[in-house]
Amino acid sequence: MKNAAAPQPATWFLYLIECLDGSIYTGIALDVAARYAAHVSGKGARYTRTHPPARLLATMAYPDRSSALKAEYRIKQLRPAAKRLLVAQLSTHAPLIIRTAIRSNPGSVYNAQFISVLRTIMEAEQLNIIANRLVDLAQRATELRRYL
Asked: Are 51 and 21 in contact (CB under 8 A)?
């Protein structure tokens, strides 16, 4: 008899943080909000202890740790301007690409798969917005605790 509650593989996230000095930190985590809070509190990576985070720029989901690490390595090889361009493309082009794909060939099976992938990207971007808001709330809560 198989176990009905078999563990699901964990989704790993790659995240980019803009630091107060304008630099960009790239990392991976299972829980981005918790990891960002650790960076903000000074208990995260050594880099963010000396370059405090200003804001979470982007998150991207990966099916496993290995693929997240490979993506992290590729992004860390980019220059800061290329990282910023990547962040801008993630947040602005997905809706336009979906509209263009639908208009160009609405009945295509490949088009349907493409649209499905892009909708997933858009949902991830919406989750990124929510994650940024949660991180902001966590920062505010941390600041309020200082006064209590």
From this structure: yes
**Among 25, 125, 128, residue whose Cα is nearest residue 78:** 25
Separation of alpha carbons 48 and 52, rounded Å? 5
Rg, C-alpha atoms of the chain? 18
C-alpha to C-alpha distance for 28 and 59, rounded to whole angstroms: 9
The CA distances from residue 133 to 76, 96, 128, in Å, are 25, 24, 9
pLDDT tens for 97-115 read: 444 444 544 555 445 555 5
pTM: 0.60
- Encode pLDDT of 78-93 as tens digits: 888 888 888 887 765 5
Q: If we measure between CA atoms, which residue out of 129, 139, 137 comes closest to residue 40?
A: 139
